[in-house]
Amino acid sequence: MVTHFIISLLLALGPPLKQFSLVHPTSLTAHLGDTARKPIVSIEESRIDSMSLLVIKDTVGSYDILLLKLGKDYSQIFSFVFQQGLHPGKTLATYFSFANPVAFETAVEVNRFPERALGRIEFKKTEAGKVVIAHYQGPYSQVSMAYDAIRNFMKVSGEEPIDHPFEVYLNNPSLVKDPFDLKTDLYQRLR
Fold this sequence. Notes:
By secondary structure, this protein is of the alpha+beta class. The chain has helices spanning 2-13, 25-29, 66-83, 144-157, and strands at residues 40-48, 51-60, 88-95, 102-110, 122-126, 129-137, 161-169, 183-190.
């Protein structure tokens, strides 16, 4: 059982480390020999509405502790959301670097800003605008395919990016047994 857990953890946290979750060991182990399954990525041009976000900016020295930091940051944000009687929307993260140290933001969309922030939580208002979305379904360990699809779209289309792309998590990894059922949308704002 310990071996299954270590293999699952290594696969879930393997490079490139974009999102993290401890996945049920038996579900990941069942797919170790399954080379026929591939993640799915599709690209869509769209528009996004403005968002009111509660954000924690953070940095970790290495990927080894990123999972713990993400969990603490989201826990702090969601506790504040519920204490303030807010309604959560999208759960997202933006990664500013993937080399050590890893700089990132955890964020939760809310229906309104409360009167004041708490601790490290900041308010951020994003503008509506044009985006390209890479709809990704598959293990987090292969989410770099979505980033590659966005880069290829940008190259072919000639569109120019605004800021860093951000990941929106569409399902809860602690409730998804099969890592190929994990869903993430990667948004890139466009000029």
